[in-house]
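Escalated from tier 1: zinc ion holo job.
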Amino acid sequence: MAFCMYDSGIYEFDNLKKLSGYCKIIPNSVYLLNNKQINPRGIVAMKKALIKLTSTAVALTVFLSFLPGCSSSSQQKESAKDSSTVESSLVTKTASNVYKRAETVATAVEAKQLLVEGNKRFVEAAFAIKDESETKRKELATKGQKPFAVIVSCSDSRVPPELVFDQALGDIFIIRDAGNVVDPVALGSVEYGVEHLHAPLIVVLGHEKCGAVKATVDGGEVTENIGAIINKIKPAFLKVKDSGAAKEDLYKNCEDENIKNTMDEIKKSPVVKKLMEEGKVSVVGAKYHIESGEVTFDY
Ligand SMILES: [Zn+2]
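Tier 2 regenerated the structure:
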């Protein structure tokens, strides 16, 4: 019998022969499969050959290994060692290598550091092993959530914050809509995240090739509700539209200005403003780069 971690789940190989075409299977071992190194057809076949397990006991015996060519246990340990080089003192690994961050992240600097490190893991496809067990869910239900960052991001399916920052249950408090803009409902959510959940950092996460920004720049007929999104992005467009920049640069510049505008709107919230004055909260802007997977904090 062998197990593997894939797509945030733990699976039992029910057909070792079927899987042997993808990697060398060592019985009674656990593998972490790096989906960036398996071609799409391989993933489909892999999923069909796996049965998902829910046992936390299995999760606690996980070793690291990467496809292609699932390696020996000594190589697995070497992989774990390599990935640990991107971890900070805020992150500890249990004997089983399960990711565990400091329960209380008090400062924006520490919170940003966790996000930067998580994004590095994402870019390198060296994902941390996360505890998504029933025990963890019960712990979060009992103790409550203590997310260390509030993230305002676009709804774009290519920009999921938990993946991009390689975070787990209870780690980040996210508000998403097309165009990463804020209205009273979104601002109320941001305020809840910092005032009641005490997250020290607010991140406005824009991204390349944003469809909402493109729709604003391109113009044209839209529905009333999509028009409400575009009206939010329009001030950013007005700042860049007469720059003489080529269309592609215009999209990029509008994305950048839109991030800054959303940051400014958040900073005007009386709740956020007060917490910023007290040094308890910071607002930063970031941009996700679609192809590289990298998040840059330049705003
Ligand atoms: Zn977008």
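The chain has two domains: 1-85, 134-296.
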